[in-house]
UniProtKB/TrEMBL annotation:
Species whose genome carries this gene: Haloarcula terrestris
Domain Domain of unknown function: 10-156
Region Disordered, annotated ranges: 196-217
Residue ranges, compositional bias (Acidic residues): 204-217
Official protein name in the record: Domain of unknown function domain-containing protein
Cited InterPro entries: DUF8102
Length: 217
């Protein structure tokens, strides 16, 4: 659950609570005012990003990103990193804004990064340009071998007791990719837990099939 109890950003704490569904005791008129305030603040925030890019010192922006305290993407799906989730949501909303306004996607997602690269790497007043290419092909398809979706599925199966020897070649490739992405992930705790669970199941089966059951004197 995203935190609503923090300092003022685009929204006030009251705005955040309203957006997350806390509308108890709020009159219809007050709800309408909240909705107007939220839309006004979002529109002004979008316009303010020009000030952030053109006038805020890049080192100061870097400090803001550092303060997000992002520790890395959790491929196991067991920990929610609020900073990562916020960046994903920010990119999603930017993409939505581009689609809804009709601004060419390649203009925003190519020209925008190009401006940043020029700001970072070219001296002020330089006539040189840096071009960043961006292609957007929308396609709905099944998870590929080694994809993040398949990594999550394989790890869940191992956690719930599937034997690693039962994995097919594609699933083994998925684990290898996960290990490479995770700087040599250690599977021993996960496999140990799965083995303990299987041993317990065998003991339960053995107890249920006690050969002394049914013996008569």
């Amino acid at each position: 659950m995203v935190s609503t109890d923090r300092g003022r950003g685009i929204f006030t704490e009251s705005n955040r609570e309203y957006l997350t569904g806390n509308k108890s005791g709020i009159s219809r008129q007050a709800q309408q005012q909240q909705e107007r305030d939220i839309k006004d603040r979002l529109r002004n925030a979008i316009l303010d990003f020009r000030f952030v890019f053109e006038h805020m010192d890049p080192d100061s922006r870097a400090e803001v990103y550092e303060d997000l305290n992002i520790e890395g993407v959790d491929l196991m799906g067991e920990r929610e990193d609020e900073g990562v989730e916020a960046l994903l949501a920010m990119a999603a909303i930017l993409y939505e804004a581009v689609l809804e306004t009709g601004v060419p996607r390649n203009l925003v997602f190519s020209k925008g990064p190009s401006l940043l690269e020029e700001q970072r790497f070219l001296p002020e007043g330089s006539k040189r340009q840096i071009q960043v290419s961006a292609d957007f092909d929308r396609e709905i398809k099944e998870p590929e071998e080694g994809s993040l979706t398949q990594i999550d599925e394989v790890l869940k199966q191992l956690r719930f007791g599937r034997d690693i020897d039962d994995l097919n070649s594609g699933e083994l490739k998925t684990l290898i990719r996960y290990a490479n992405m995770s700087d040599g992930a250690d599977f021993s705790p996960l496999l140990k837990a799965a083995e303990e669970e299987r041993n317990q199941e065998r003991e339960d089966v053995f107890e249920d099939s006690d050969p002394t059951d049914g013996d008569t004197d």
